[in-house]
């Protein structure tokens, strides 16, 4: 774990200094040598740097770090609650809007039919059936039955 913490600090510092120091002779070779020194089980470079610099700094700032973590947790909880409420309100509004629009379409489909409407539907059906199949039965208006 010490290696990864030291390596994270190294990567952060490297990102900031890479542009400025890349013109320095043997810069990239020195970087590789430093990473090997950090990794090596013989030199234990990461553990040396961690124990001399990182651990004392973290120990001194422990209370401040804990306060920042607590504040971040509180703010994230408040933010999630606010976003959750907005999401639920949007979903409820969408459901109500869909229900209102759907009710209009549904009522149009389920309206009561008069006998004249049913007669028109039958006439349309016979025209369609007649045009597709000449042997299809026809609706006879006088008897109210299909004629074959």
Structure write-up:
There is one protein chain. This protein is mostly helical and 148 residues long. Among the domains are: 2-60, no CATH class; 115-147, no CATH class. 78% of the residues lie in helices and 4% in strands. It is built from 5 helices and 2 strands; from the N terminus they run αααααββ. It has helices at residues 2-21, 27-39, 45-60, 62-109, 115-132; strands at 138-140, 145-147. Strands 1-2 form a two-stranded antiparallel ribbon. Helix 1 runs antiparallel to helix 2 (27-39) and helix 1 (2-21) crosses helix 3 (45-60). The longest helix is centred in the middle third of the chain and has 48 residues, at 62-109. It is elongated, with a radius of gyration of 40 Å.
Annotate the secondary structure layout.
Layout: H1 2-21, H2 27-39, H3 45-60, H4 62-109, H5 115-132, E1 138-140, E2 145-147
Antiparallel strand pairs: 1-2
Helix pairs in contact: 1-2, 1-3
What topology, given as strand order, has the largest sheet? 1-2
Note poorly predicted spans: none
SSE sequence, one letter per element: HHHHHEE
Average pLDDT score: 78
Name the shape in a single word.
elongated
Main sheet summary: 2 strands, antiparallel
Number of strands: 2
In short:
78% of the residues lie in helices and 4% in strands. With 148 residues, it is mainly α.
What tags apply to this protein structure?
148 residues; mainly alpha; two-stranded antiparallel ribbon; 5 helices; 2 strands; 78% helix; 4% strand
